[in-house]
């Protein structure tokens, strides 16, 4: 018989997982200018006003600060004083979902159009490359442990009487090509678009900058955790783009 606490924690993680997946889908359709009445390319003004720039910088910063601060070990230790440690990852996923939702909702689109592909064949090709990027991201999550990354395993395993697995450094599949394939997928998905306004360019460039800054701190954490094993990995495998970076 499962303990009520175990069940409640798992239900909480399911809710956070659903929010995380929904926010990722929202982010994809927003940045790829699909389906929504308001996307990154939905022109509300040709020339950005100072207030629009400030709002957009705030929106990006909101996501960046949340995503980076909550990933640090010191914050995790502090948070675990208030919630059960098995719920920490789910809480991070839920907070990320809120940050993504706020970032995209607050964003003020502006023009002009920077590039626009007219050829139907070229549009299909570019869309296919973008889809490949998002698929690359999804595959990368499963190559490690998708349900652990999204916080489900941490609450489900105790219900089964399983101890938390010992962390081992692994480089399955795509991780032998680049060190951070999840972020590589985001970059491909964001930039492979047939139409880009200045708004999209600003959004994608800001997110790209954040990815590089965020990875700088993430890799410091990984070096602290895995030491020379991770340093050797850094020498063998490029960060985001094979043979380049």
Q: What is the end-to-end distance? A: 51 Å
Query: What is the subunit arrangement here?
Result: single chain
Q: Which descriptor suits the 3D outline?
A: globular
Number of helices: 10
- Based on DSSP secondary structure assignment, what is the total number of beta strands? 2
Could you tell me the radius of gyration in angstroms? Answer: 19 Å
Main beta-sheet annotation? 2 strands, antiparallel
Which strand order do you get reading across the main beta sheet? 1-2
Structure class: mainly alpha
Overall number of domains: 1
Write the element-wise H/E pattern from the N-terminal end onward: HHHHEHHHHEHH
The average pLDDT score comes to 91
Low-confidence stretches: none
β-strand amount? under 5%
Helix content: 55-70%
Q: What is this entry, summarized?
A:
By secondary structure, the chain is mainly α. It has one domain (4-236). It has helices spanning 4-31, 50-69, 73-79, 88-106, 120-144, 146-149, 153-159, 181-191, 198-226, 228-236, and strands at 113-116, 195-197.
